Here is the input.
Amino acid sequence: MKQILIIAGLMAAIFLLWNYPVLYPLKLLVVFFHESSHALMTVATGGSVETLVIDPMQGGHVISVGGDRFLTLSAGYLGSLVWGVVIYLIAVRTRLDKAMMILLGVIVIAIAVFFIREMFALAFAGVTGVILILMGWKLPMEVNDLVLRVIGMTNMIYVPYDIYSDTIARSELASDAFMLAEEFGGATWLWGGVWLVVSLVLVVITLVVGLSVGSDEPSSDEDVAV
Here is the structure.
């Protein structure tokens, strides 16, 4: 019951604050995860990344050469969701919150160093990475746990919404699904629909796994000091 109340409270807070500036940094972080997923998949499939861009209007793109085009186009929305799922499950299933926060900050800075060349995105990633590292280093585990849950939950809410908005409700946009349809056939809404179903299923599974925390939850004497 406690986990249900926590999840319900987080979801309600995110929905209520969705259009307020307080969630702006989190929305930019979701965009960062989206574009980073494109970049990492490009490199993983043999391509190279020239630059990763995030703009203040919560948009972004990756300029790359080579790589598996199908996988790199598909990696944006679904990759961002995977970031959120992993972060959320580590928060609810382990007591590694402080270590995870520091690691996340290091990863954000590393991605910025390797892929970002534009000033706004560099500043955002640099400041965000430093803040995450300092939080993991200085703040209590309970604070880090809450922040990680919020980051993970925001991704899990934002990604399906973004998929629907960009690929189904406004299928004329030059989205990842639009480019996938142009290059591999099908319709924008079809690819977006597939991604939406996959994302919703993954979100439900993640929430169920999170709710299963009970007798198997680590005891307090298993805390990890960082």
